[in-house]
Amino acid sequence: FQYLKRFDxxxxxxxxxxxxxxxEGSPAECLQLFLLHCGIVDPSWAELRNFTWFLNIxxxxxxxxxxxxxxxxxxxxxxx
Length: 80
Prior knowledge:
This protein has helices at residues 2-8, 27-37, 45-64, 70-73. By secondary structure, the protein is an all-alpha fold. The longest helix is centred in the last third of the chain and has 20 residues, at 45-64.
């Protein structure tokens, strides 16, 4: 949710890191963003769960990768 919220606000995601145990927004706002970005017009709860699970794993792996660390790559992969 933290990434999707900042993405919609046009923030630079290259320098953002997930903040564990940080609560942002309301459950309704979270659900609305998931529905907006999941890519399915009328998703089931299982489809929403799969979308959030996949997105979470991708973002966690991205944060763990040295190649996605802006301090390491400098400006060579800006926006990647």
